[in-house]
Amino acid sequence: MSVDEKKTRLAAWLPRVCFITVCALPAVLTVLFYALRSNVSTMDWAADRISAPIRRAMGFLSSVFPFSLMEIFCVVAIVLLIFYVVKTIVLTVRGSNKLKILSKRLLTIAVAVLYVWSLFCWLWNSGYHANGFAARAGFVRNGATVEELAAVTAFFAERVNELAPLVSRDEDGRYAEDRREIFDLSTLVYQNAAEEFPALGGRLYKPKPMIFSWLMSRTGYTGVYFALTGESNINNNAPLFLLPATIAHELAHQLGVFAEDEASFVGILGAVTSGYTAYEYAGYLSGLIYLRNALFMADFDAWVGINESLCAEVVMDLQANYDFWVSQKTVDTGVSFFDNFLTSITETLSETVDAVYDGFLKSQSQELGIKSYGACVDLLVEYFHVASESQKTLNS
Known about the structure:
This protein is mostly helical.
């Protein structure tokens, strides 16, 4: 075979090799992740050496934009998918070789989805299979006794009672802290917590209020961290008094705290040690909600006693939080048939999102699924039990 013939054959094969490589790469990365995810040391390496630097770089790049790149990504992806599916149907119907056209276009969609999923696996899912914050910080999660739970819940109740009158309120006693200032202070939240836990000392990028906050409210979520852009995205419609705790939770994800229960604990820890009253109040109030829910099932009488100890401002905020989330489950336009129809859609949407996210978490070895948001109680009791005992001694 002559040199020219070899060049011609190579030129003919090169596009095919490139095509196969492009199509196979995300599948290989995905298979590799699932094959290695049970190896904790490998996932530790991936979380520290692959995920962390890339997410930090993406966070830096996305911080240039005041709006959420995640929202733009999702909207564009949905629009393109709808357009592509419609065009696929048209071309398949009109084309002579329908099977070939359909298979090629379905392959394109499959490859695109696999690229996104493989990136998500290595940038985020790897952290679910690595050693978490509790393990790295030396926490031993043996569970909490009822007495310890009651003591820590009482401690949180005392702290919210102390802080509730110190935050800004309007003439009717409603929470009135400045929303912009809460966002501006966000990147400083962990400066004190980082002295005790150096892993929380990484650079933070300001969270972004979401345009589609109304949709987040309807599905029952207050924020989301998006690993592909390194952004913390916040539901800006949720109750303002818990906004600092939500921000601290999503920033914990920025710092590499992957599990939801650990991010809730770290968020509360960061908020209550921040030195900023709005964050301290939100942190203790958020923790109190978790603890009260657990105490209700463990010791109803203690739960009643703590509820009766709460000051008027705290009761008002807790009621406002309850009323807001109840309002998001229904639609009230004044037209009963229309309201019932939209309320049914809202309920279905919320249940579907919960089911999908629950399934996703469980598929990544988060056995509690969405219930893991409340599993931070053990960590709260373990960490704050000493503080609660000290407070009890002072009170006596």
